[in-house]
Amino acid sequence: VSTIGPMSGGIDIHTHVVPREFPAYGGSSILPAWPSMEVLPCGHANLVISGKLFRTVSEAAWSVPRRIGDLAEMGLGRQVISPMPELLSYWLPLSDALALLRHVNATIAGMVAEDPIRLIGMGAVPLQDIPVAIAELRYLVEAYDLRAVEIGSNVNGVSIGAPCFEPFFEAAADLEVAVFVHALRAAGTDRLVGPPVLEQIIAFPGEIALAIASLITGGILVRHPKLRIAFSHGGGGFALTLARMEHFWSDLPRFRDLLTESPSATARRAYYDLAVFDSTVVRMLVARFGVGQLLIGSDYPFGAYERAPLEVLRGAGLTEVELSAVAKTNAQRYLGIWDGSGETP
Amino acid sequence: VSTIGPMSGGIDIHTHVVPREFPAYGGSSILPAWPSMEVLPCGHANLVISGKLFRTVSEAAWSVPRRIGDLAEMGLGRQVISPMPELLSYWLPLSDALALLRHVNATIAGMVAEDPIRLIGMGAVPLQDIPVAIAELRYLVEAYDLRAVEIGSNVNGVSIGAPCFEPFFEAAADLEVAVFVHALRAAGTDRLVGPPVLEQIIAFPGEIALAIASLITGGILVRHPKLRIAFSHGGGGFALTLARMEHFWSDLPRFRDLLTESPSATARRAYYDLAVFDSTVVRMLVARFGVGQLLIGSDYPFGAYERAPLEVLRGAGLTEVELSAVAKTNAQRYLGIWDGSGETP
Question: Is B331 helix (H, G, I), strand (E, B) or coil?
Fold first, then answer.
């Protein structure tokens, strides 16, 4: 895959970071769910949380040179780096979460400082306390100039479309911070038959769909038109749920009366990454959301990440102009970083 | 819409019945969740359960002449009639569930006796007790010649792909009873932001997707190749989840090792109804499952049911031959009722 040509500026908006190390726990919990890294040979490490192996990761999780090399292999030029979702820490006591997220955010800001041309930082804030989360959002901007934040699809089981989270979205819109919603601790995990890895594979698509729907039925996307928000994994099953929502909106007054515009119109206010691995799915997302709302997302560097994101889009029949929009100008528009070159985003 | 021509034999496999009346409660529970009907003017009735209005239904829920008239309006010739899912009664004490389901099954068999040419009966069994459920399956066949059964996507929160349900599926395959899986009491309902009607609109697609995935990862579909099984609402979000499963199956050994064939191959062992209301979705289901696995389903007579199922398929670009397969021969094959006419199913 060549890195020469218009795609050299392509942006992967969905990649994750695990810091190489974590500070010793300094809080007062007796059994803190505090992460630590066990160094392994060959540039790998075990992330251990609460005494259990959570995930074995390679140096790609923290090494800037390694990421830059892999990015070129993927045919892209820039990468948004966000925390591994399990680090979002909504389930920790607030003081523990705050300490951990400050370490993670500082790590991400430090990686960006190593290569500010190619890396774009995305931080995290403790959404279990909205005033603190808003203060931390401001801190991300002021301390590090980080203008993107990753959030979970739910906060301790409460969908992000619930009214209590609206002040956070209002603050993100005001501060011009882009929001990336990632599936997390999925609804229906207890319905899976098989090992824990099925949560990511099978339950994430339903989970992120529920999160998007909650922002629509809760009215948040309509009330905050300046909010720039993107959803992981192509919105999961949401493109199919949306067809059902659209039909009921047309046909069932008690659902229509709930919304001020059609669910499809609201859905097109948001962005969706293309971490979907399948050209047929890409075609459906183009039909459902419009090519202007789609972004490259690979889920790098975790297992089964998308190694050839541009090939999937070409396989879906996108023209080079559309490909350039998805890979570059859509992402610039979503992130608020249009550099004045290329077509107007 | 004309009822003349090849489509006059078209079969709608997804329609529901609510009996016009229920017997008085005869069990020993102090607060039984036993249904009753309050008659309303103009051929309507309120279905009341546990003292609360569950749903207002029209006579279409029980009247054979009314159904036959509406069926012709939809351009179809036959209709599979199954219980309203909330009547499945998995959450009742076994003796109450058994009494209620026997009443529902007898009602459905009675409706079929009124018009055995146009109506095809689908019963229900108490899956909270597998040996009793299997005995009731046999009773459906012997007492009423009912060779189709509706089941929920979960039984009191346990996915139907869990090992405990395998003897039921084995019995259905042995008795040559077609199984129709309907979304029920959906996972993620607590993630919805808005009124109760959102469960059906937004949470059902994720719920039925989880049920299908559980039958794949639990191995039931592969181990029972003679099982004829169909899923409601086009499988909900499953067509999108499947693309993700397929990618991880190719790329992640610990997921691949779990399955004896690709998730897509297993998915094509099942049938999916087309109660999806959208031509783009139909096209995706054709691409994902093959036209031979799709069936007409309308969700008649409940709110927002599909009034023009053939139009949606024509809008998706299906040829008349494909349309005839979906509407007729696929359904005959699924139900085990090929009459020897038309193309070989």
Answer: helix
Q: Can you tell me the mean pLDDT for A85-101?
A: 97
Helix (H) or strand (E) holding B38: strand B35-39
- Which residues of chain B does A315 touch, with a Cβ-Cβ cutoff of 8 Å? none
Structural element, H or E, at residue B295: strand B294-295
Q: In terms of pTM, does the model score above 0.90?
A: yes
- Residue B38: how many other CB atoms lie within 10 Å: 11
Farthest CA pair distance, chain B: 62
Cis check for the bond before B301: say yes or no (omega within 30 of 0): yes
Residues in chain B with CB shorter than 8 Å from the CB of A210 are: 188, 191-192, 202-203, 206
Strand partners, B180: B150, B230
A201 → closest Cβ in B198, B244, B304:
B244
Position B2 confidence tier, pLDDT thresholds 50, 70, 90: very low
B13-36 pLDDT, tens digit per residue, is 999 999 999 999 999 988 889 999
Return phi, psi of residue B272, to 5°. Answer: -135, 130
- Nearest-5° angle of CA B77, CA B79, CA B82? 175
Bridging pattern class, strands A154-155 and A158-159: antiparallel
Measure in Å the smallest separation between the Cα of A287 and chain B Cα atoms.
8
Euclidean distance between CA atoms A60 and B108, whole angstroms: 61
Question: Are B237 and A238 inside 8 Å of each other by CB?
Answer: yes
Please give the average per-residue pLDDT across A149-171, as a whole number.
98
